[in-house]
Amino acid sequence: MRLEEWLVADSRLDEQQYEIYMSEPGNSMVIAGNAGSGKTVLAVLRAKRVSNLGSFVLLVFNKALKAMLEFGFMAQQLSADATIYAWAWENRGMDLSGLVFFPITKNGENVQYLSSHIYLQKGDRIEVYKKSDHVRKSHYAALHAAYLRDFKTLTPEEIRSREAEITRFVSVDFADWIGNAYWQTYGRRTCFYELEKILSPQELRLTDSTKFESLSSAILFVPFKFKKDFMILDEAQDFQAEQIESLRSDFTKSIVFFGDTSQKLSTSGTSINAIAKTMACEYVELQKNYRVTKEIARLAEYMLPDDERTLVRRCNKDWGNALPVVKKCKSLDEQIDFILGIIKAEDLTDVAILVPTNKMVEIVVKKMNEKGMDSQYRYNRPLGGFTEALNDFMSGELGGGYYNQIDNLNFQSTLPCVLTYHSSKGTQFETVFIPFANDSMHFNGIKKNAFYVAMTRASRELYLTYEDKLTSAFAPVPVSCYRSV
């Protein structure tokens, strides 16, 4: 994904987008818009605009979008810590961005983890945290309770001082099923570490694998959330009504929601119109789509109910007769060969391969690797049911969850990106391939929305492949909307 093309400067916004960007920061709003209308870009620019006016946070519904937005925030010289995965905000507190390292000692193949310190690398900054034996969760909870009790009477300087005192202490959590040794050494949300010092990579070489081990699923977090002056929600349609309502107590000045009901992937999500009514705030609908071509939009619209088919008339670009391509294949290998052949022949560097499930991501990545092509990806690898999980834990093999999170995403890389439809939300790529478009996938209801989301990630070319029989979701689609090969 080319971030330089996605994250446009405020000087390149259209008149309506610029009016939203320059709107009164203290006004709460709901911004609706089709795929490619610039919602996520406006969310980042909104964060930039309010960053000098007070504290803020941008909540997102999935982890892949959070990873992408961290790059966007850094490009705007904003702290990546201000992008928060919504589940974490509700259940854990404020996650800190960066890669976590653990100190180790090695004796042959045996590795011993040392609980004395944890290290967090953020670019050229290394935060060193020392285990605190005197801080317990009850002590931390008392600090936070006092902060909430006194909040309305505190000056801005006193608020910052209180928050700085609390955020010196962090705890550790893990996003997936981890080795039992981690549990025994660090616990999970039970031990506290205090910021001891800040070093540079020259002062501490975390790349020394004999002394340190990184774990991509490890997360340092401040166990409580603070009130923010400004809140921003992207992909708001996937939040539950109860979640939306609960946010009233989390901000002091304004909240802005960005979303598109047609892209709702959660069965418990809510409509953008309903959010505007619930929060009693201004509703604005973006009028133009800058990503999807008319040819792709014409096909994608058939995945939506008749009253939601507004994408074509809002398209702001047209690539002529570049119809989406649909190809029938005899096998998975033929689908992958077709995809890789086009990537190589056209020397494509901004590519996504989008599939319905985590298992299919793993299959595609493995097949691509076997055929000599590297990729970037994110998926969850399940580790069986509760019985299997408990047996693994008791045997000391694994412990702490039901899946492994496999993630090497780097949105600045030119490698093909393999994601589920759900994880692709908010992203865009010049060329998108959608394999497994088979009738057996049963694209209906909320899954049809997901199919629509996948199609509308493409800004230039769209290819779909299938075996046996094309998905019945194509039944109402005129053959003039795509090219069969």
Automatic annotation (TrEMBL):
Sequence ranges assigned to domain UvrD-like helicase C-terminal in this UniProt record: 417-465
GO biological process, one term: recombinational repair
Highest taxon in the source lineage: Bacteria
GO molecular function term, any single one: DNA binding
Coiled coil: none
GO cellular component terms listed in the entry, alphabetical order: cytosol
Organism, scientific name: Mucilaginibacter aquatilis
A Pfam family reported for this protein in Swiss-Prot or TrEMBL: UvrD_C_2
Protein name: UvrD-like helicase C-terminal domain-containing protein
Record InterPro entries: DNA_helicase_UvrD/REP, P-loop_NTPase, UvrD-like_helicase_C
PANTHER family: DNA 3'-5' HELICASE, UVRD / RECB / PCRA DNA HELICASE FAMILY MEMBER
Taxon lineage: Bacteria, Pseudomonadati, Bacteroidota, Sphingobacteriia, Sphingobacteriales
